[in-house]
Amino acid sequence: MRLESPASAPRRHRVEHVDTDASGVVHFSRYASLLETAALEELERRGSDLVKLEGQGLDLRVRELRIRYREAARFQDWLRLEARLEHVGPASLKLGVAVYREGPAPEPVLLASGSLDLAVVNRESGDPTCLPPNLSSALERSPSP
Predict the structure, then answer these.
(1) Radius of gyration for the alpha carbons in the chain, expressed in angstroms and rounded
(2) What counts of helices (H) and strands (E) characterise the chain?
(3) At CA 123, angle to CA 118 and CA 127, rounded to 5?
(4) Residue-level pLDDT at 8
(5) Is the pTM value of this prediction over 0.90?
(6) According to the model, what pLDDT value does residue 31 have?
(7) Alpha carbon of residue 104 to chain centroid
(8) How far is CA 107 from the centre of its chain?
(9) In the prediction, which pLDDT does 6 show?
(10) What angle do CA 53, 59, 61 make, to 5 degrees?
(11) How far apart are CA 61 and CA 112, in angstroms?
(12) Mean pLDDT by 10 residues, the chain (145 residues)
C-alpha cells in the first residue's frame, strides 16, 4: 500500500567528532546510520518497532539503501532528521528520510535525502514473511503528532 504520510516529528542530532573525517566534514558512511535511526524511530512512533516485531518472531532486513548527498555537514552542526513511511507491502516497508542542517538561515538546508527498503523476515530462518494484520494496520494508520 502506497502511503502519503507526513514526515515524522523531526529528530535532532548534533554532529560529533566521531561522525567526521579529518577535515571536520561528516563522513559519507555516517548518513546511512542517520537514515536508519530516523526510520526506526518512525516505526516506533507508529507502534511497530523492532521489539514488537521481535515479539512476533519477525525482523527487518535492508533490501536497498539509497542516499543522495547535496551539501556537507560539519562538526557541531545541528541536523534535523525527518522520516516518512512511503510504502507498506505484504512483506516489505519503504521509508524516506531527509537530513537538514539547522542554523542561522531562515530555512533549514537539505543536506541529504534517501530511502530504506526493508524486507520483513522470519527471525529464526531469515525467510521472507508477511506482516501480521495488527502490525500492518498500525503502520498504515497515521500516527498522532
Answers:
(1) 16
(2) 3, 5
(3) 70
(4) 57
(5) no
(6) 96
(7) 26
(8) 22
(9) 53
(10) 140
(11) 22
(12) 56 94 94 95 89 92 97 96 95 96 90 97 95 86 62
The pLDDT, as a whole number, for residue 136 is 86
How distant is the alpha carbon of residue 70 from its chain centre? 18
Place of cell 558512511: 29
Determine the Cα–Cα distance for residues 136 and 139; give it in Å rounded to an integer.
5
pLDDT of residue 143: 62
Q: And the C-alpha cell for 115?
A: 530511502
CA 131 to the chain's CA centroid: 18
Torsions phi, psi for 140 (to 5 deg): -75, -25
Distance of CA 46 to the CA centre of its chain: 13
Give SS3 for 145: coil
Distance CA(133)–CA(91), nearest Å, equals 11
Can you give the pLDDT at residue 5? 52
Q: Which residue has the cell 507508529?
A: 46
Phi-psi region of 110 (alpha: psi -120 to 50; beta: other; left: phi over 0): beta
